[in-house]
Amino acid sequence: MPAEWEPHSATWLGWPHNVTDWPGKFQPIPWVYAEIVRNLARGERVEIIVNNAAAEQRARDVLHKAHALSDNVRFHRWPTNRGWARDFSPLFVRRPGSPKNEVAPPSSRLKGSSSQETSVAGQGGDFPGKHTLATVNFRFNAWAKYPDWELDQAAADRIVEFTRVPPFKPVAEMSGKLTPLVLEGGSIDVNGRGTLITTEECLLSSIQARNPGLSRDQLERAFADWLGATHVIWLGRGIAGDDTHGHVDDITRFVHPTTVVTAIETNTQDANHAPLRQNLEILRKAADQDGHRLNVIELPMPAPIYFRGRRLPASYANFYIANAVVLAPVFNDPNDRLALNLLAELFPGRRITPISCGDLIWGLGAIHCMTQQQPAP
Length: 377
Fold this sequence. Notes:
Blueprint: E1 8-14, H1 29-40, E2 45-50, H2 53-65, E3 73-77, H3 85-88, E4 91-94, H4 115-121, E5 133-136, H5 142-145, H6 150-163, E6 167-168, E7 171-174, E8 177-180, E9 189-190, E10 195-199, H7 200-203, H8 216-227, E11 231-235, E12 252-256, E13 259-264, H9 273-285, E14 295-300, E15 306-307, E16 310-311, E17 320-321, E18 325-330, H10 335-346, E19 351-356, H11 367-370, E20 371-375
């Protein structure tokens, strides 16, 4: 799986429509999306998923008023439940340069697969034509929390069909049978060289269990088989208020094959202080796939944000690395400037663009949660 900073051909996102994601605060949300689209479209195509023709027209009206419509913006009329593209979209993997190191997973993992999957993997990953990309379409089940997810999963299938690259549908053995493997894009981060970071809270906890009964070893084998990630770094917990129960994209992100930024809370009385400190210590002892120690950079946290008595998962780590820009969440907080300056140092070739997320975060997600990159072939 390529790193996020590698060249994109497009960014996918789902246009907001589910008012229950932002109860009482939905009105400003499309305008936040418009600002994100406007900046993304300067450097890559933006693929926007809308529910229907009427929803597309509403999105076009907002984008037109925000000067965000361009030839780089394209719409797809596919209904979704919520539209957090990071988590329901397929992931993309790239064929390594050597024919001896194919993307395809071992054929033994494909018993019971559909005829399409078998025909692809049965060739040992030697896909017909000159495909350099494949999609890895994990199952999505709304973070093992909400009952409505079927439309989001169907939208992921449509992305696979639209991109016309070879598909994989990962499976794992659970209770003696092969079962579709559940994984959200926000639960992992990769360096594009074979190392993956995730959290125990999200993938190993019995709370919101995505794959009940699946062991750490089985998950690590799945990461190797389906994403080419042969080395896994396990952090502990995510941040307070996180509806996903521990997504890593709110706490720790690769910014270079050997460098990570990780969120730190300096207030010892804050609920995030201890778990983020523990994650920092794990990273300081961690190495990449080649045994090299990581360069660990501390990223501040904004002051706690509450709405209607609930703490929200505000974090500067939920940035998105696009071709021309890094879209950075800001929260009208003194630490906004520190976070922006740090990202500017880390990405000197990209424009660091702050996106006001004070309203967006009421949906319990921010910029990285709503976007999914499609790597360039």
